[in-house]
Amino acid sequence: MPSSKSMLLFMCFVFGSLMQSMKAQDPSKLTLDYYTKTCPHAQQIVRTEMECFVRAEQRNAAIMLRLHFHDCFVQGCDGSVLLDDTATLIGEKQAEQNVNSLKGFDLVDKIKEKLEAECPGVVTCADLLAIAARDAVELVGGPYWDVPVGRLDSKTASLDLANTDIPTAQQGLLTLISKFWAKGLSATDMVALVGSHTIGFARCANYRDRIYGDFEQTSKYNPSSETYLSKVKETCPLDGGDDNISAMDYATPAAFDNAFYEQLIKGEGLLNSDQEMWSSVVGSQTADLVNKYWADPGLFFKQFSDSMVKMGNITNPEGGEVRKNCRFVNT
C-alpha cells in the first residue's frame, strides 16, 4: 500500500495535470446542429456506411471505436491519428500502441468519400470518427447518445505524445488514472470507457505477461477460469504468435453489454490494465464502480454515454481545418 505522502504527491500531480489539460479544452464551439444547414445528411451518411461495415464484419464496430479513443488521447479529438507519414510530417500510426493495433483507416476513407460527394469541404475527419464511434456502439447493442460536432482536423500529429499519453495494457492503476485525469477524465469516466473492451480484441503481445503472470492468483485458481486460461494460452504461447488475438469479453464478444465487468470480478480480465480496476490494492473506488456497472447495465450505459461525450469534447487548442482526405493535411 502506498504511503500517505506518496499518495498526496500523486494527487498533486494529477490535479496539476488536470488543470493544465482543462485549459487546453474548449468544447464551447461544439453543437448538435453544427451541420444542420451545411450538410444536413452528414450523420445519416456515416450511419449508413457503418451499418454496412458492421454487417460485413462485427469487429468493425470495435475497430472504429478504438480509432476515436486513440485520436482523442493525443492532441484532443482532431483526426491526427488518421494522418499518414509524409516527407514533412510524422504521423501517429507507428506509435507503440497503434502500429500493430489500429485498423479501419480504409473504412474512414470510404465514409469520407461519401461525405465529400455530398458536402465537399464541410465535415471534418474528427467529427466523422466521433459519429462513427457512436454508431458502432449502438449497432452492436450499446447505447445511443447525441454527438456534439464542430471539431477541426489538426494540421499536425505527435508520435511522441502517442507513445506517452495513450494508456498501455501493462500499466498499473495509478498510472492509468493519471493518464485519464490528465485529459480531464475522472476515474469514473475511465472505468466506464474501458467497458468498451466488451467488444474489443487484444493482441497476444499485450496480454502474454498477464496470462503467464498473476492470472491464476486473481482468478483464485477457479476450475472454470483454468479452462479459459488454457484456451487463451493456446492462442498466445510463451514464444511467438504476437499478433494472435483474443476477445477481451469471452462471454459475449460481439455484443456491447456489461459482461466484461463480470470477468473482472471473477479475476479473469485479459489485460493487466483492466484487471487492475478490480484487483489493485489502491482500487477501492474503481472496484466499487466495476461492481455497480455489472449489477446495473442501465447505469453503465448512461455513464458510458456521458463519458464518451466528455471525451469527445476534448478539442485541439491549435485549431485546424477540414481535410479533403483524412490521411493528409490540405495543400
Automatic annotation (TrEMBL):
User: Which superkingdom?
Assistant: Eukaryota
Q: Give me the disulphide-bonded residues.
A: C39-C119, C72-C77, C125-C326, C204-C236
Q: Does the keyword Nucleus apply?
A: no
Could you tell me which PROSITE patterns the record lists for this protein?
PEROXIDASE_1, PEROXIDASE_2, PEROXIDASE_4
Its GO CC terms are: extracellular region
Q: Where in the cell is the protein located?
A: Secreted
Show the PANTHER family listed in the entry. Answer: PEROXIDASE 11, PEROXIDASE 72-RELATED
User: Which family, according to UniProt?
Assistant: Belongs to the peroxidase family. Ascorbate peroxidase subfamily.
Record protein name field: Peroxidase
Upper lineage is: Eukaryota, Viridiplantae, Streptophyta, Embryophyta, Tracheophyta
